Amino acid sequence: MNGLKWVVFFALLLIPTLASAHGVASGDQGYIQAISGVNFIPFVYLGAKHMVTGYDHLAFIFGVIFFLYKLKDIGIYVSLFAIGHSTTLLFGVFAHINVNAYLIDAIIGLSVVYKALDNLGAYQRWLEIQPNTKIATLIFGLFHGFGLATKILEFEIAPDGLVTNLIAFNVGVEVGQLMALSAILIAMSYWRKHGNFTQHAYSANVVLMTLGFILMGYQLFGYFSL
Q1: Is 24 inside a domain boundary?
Q2: Is residue 21 part of a domain?
Q3: How far apart are CA 194 and CA 189, in angstroms?
Q4: Tell me, what's the pLDDT at 220?
Q5: Taking the CA of residue 59 as centre, how many other CA atoms within 13 Å lie in the half-sphere pointing to its CB?
Q6: pLDDT score of 204 more than 80
Q7: Counting beta carbons within 10 angstroms of the beta carbon of residue 11, is it exposed (0 to 12), middle (13 to 18) or buried (19 or more)?
Q8: Which residue did the predictor score with more confidence, 149 or 10?
Q9: Residue 7 forms part of a structural domain
Q10: Sign of the C-alpha dihedral, residues 185, 135, 118, 173?
Q11: Tens digits of residue pLDDT in 105-132
Q12: pLDDT of res. 54
């Protein structure tokens, strides 16, 4: 199975779950609501689990690193995304900023579409400009963080130990991101060497863009159905 077929295969697996961006398993939700005090290790685990199973995060990161070959460049972009994600997660919870989850998740879908179009060179052809990708990565990272913050606010976590638990959650998010990024880079490296990467790059980003539009559609439908 070549690289493009793997992209399509995983895309089809994701489609049934698109309506539940930033979803938290019922067991995890019950645990979060029941505990109090400092629970560092459990929240590290929950943060890592959220990132590893967060297909919207992974789709955006996949698009960001798609044409990046140097580890230094990959580190810069992933760090910008992490800074944005962590900042709004903490700020959103502590400031109790309750943004409509459907709209936030629709914007997250838009971030996937944006990066896929960027990879396709659409902005240069249509607008004759090249947006600053680093700034865009940071801005969309901020929205990704708000997406989870809205869910955490719904759970009404006990204030006792909240600061430490949220920091632990962020640590877990970064651990999960490194795990997911490692897997993505291994797959991309194999694809680039053995799977006609250049030939299928266009189609892969069309698939990525389609996933983003599907996510946006689900979330906007949910918003207007309220």
Answers
A1: no
A2: no
A3: 9
A4: 93
A5: 35
A6: yes
A7: middle
A8: 149
A9: no
A10: positive
A11: 899 899 999 999 999 999 999 989 989 9
A12: 79
The three-point CA angle 181-185-187 to 5° equals 120
Name the CA dihedral angle for 170, 171, 173, 174, rounded to a multiple of 10 degrees: 120
Q: Which two three-digit tokens encode residue 173?
A: 């998010």
The candidate with the shortest Cα–Cα distance to 46, out of 146, 148, 156, 147, is 148
- C-alpha 220: how far from its chain's center? 18
DSSP 123-179: HHHHTS----HHHHHHHHHHHHHHHHHHHHHHHT--STTHHHHHHHHHHHHHHHHHH
What's the number of domains the chain is made of?
1
CA distance 79 to 138: 9
pLDDT tens figures, 21-33: 455 565 677 777 7
Structure tokens at 114: 């944006």
Bigger pLDDT: 4 or 92?
92
Residue 129 lies in a domain: yes
* Structure-token match 């961006």, residue found: 21
Whether 4 shows a pLDDT value over 70: the answer reads no
How many helices (H) and strands (E) the chain has is answered by 10, 0
Contact (Cβ atoms closer than 8 angstroms) between residue 21 and residue 219: yes
pLDDT at 23: 53
Structure-token match 């900023």, residue found: 97
| Separation of alpha carbons 126 and 10, rounded Å | 30
Q: Read off the pTM.
A: 0.83
Provide the domain limits for residue 203. 39-224
Instruction: State how far the Cα of 148 lies from the Cα of 164, in Å rounded to an integer.
Output: 17
